[in-house]
Each structure stands twice: as C-alpha cells, then as structure tokens.
Write a structure and sequence with these properties.
Blueprint (H helix, E strand, L loop, with lengths): L1 E9 L4 H12 L4 E7 L4 E7 L5 H9 L4 E4 L2
Antiparallel strand pairs: 1-3, 1-4, 2-3
This protein binds dioxo(di-mu-sulfide)dimolybdenum.
Length: 72
C-alpha cells in the first residue's frame, strides 16, 4: 500500500544538496513523490510498501554521502 516515510537527513548544506536528495529519492522504484526540506533537514517520501522498504530509502540518501535516519 501507499505509505509516507519521513527521514532526518544530515549534511545538506545548500539547495543543490537537497535537490540531489530529492531527485535520488524520486528515482527509486516505488517512490511516487519525495519532498526534501533543506531548512528542516528532512525528507517526506510517498512510497509503495510492496515495491520499496524504508531501509532502501535510507540507502538511496546515504549513497549520495548524506546521513539519514528514519523518523517515527
Ligand atoms: Mo554544492 Mo551542496 O557542491 O553540498 S551541492 S554545497
């Protein structure tokens, strides 16, 4: 089903960073929408639980060199 995950993302220092994270998350199969806030250092991701896990979302962010944690 469709779920929303929120991630704390640390290390983003400019809007190019947050745009890169957003683009990477949007490219993950099963993600229907990702919005990243530079100011809040957070990502909000709408995704299909049948296609992708929260752990894979974290990995997509970490692959860019940022640290990510799943928020409650
Ligand atoms: Mo520019 Mo943001 O190299 O880290 S993308 S500062």
């Amino acid at each position: 089903g469709r779920h929303v995950a929120r991630l704390q993302v640390s290390g983003m220092t400019c809007s190019s960073c947050s745009s890169a994270v957003e683009t990477a998350l949007d490219a993950v199969p099963g993600v229907s929408n990702a919005v990243v806030s530079l100011i809040q250092q957070q990502a909000r991701i709408e995704y299909d639980t049948a296609a992708v896990t929260p752990e894979e979302l974290l990995e997509a962010v970490e692959a860019l060199g940022f640290e990510a944690k799943l928020l409650g």
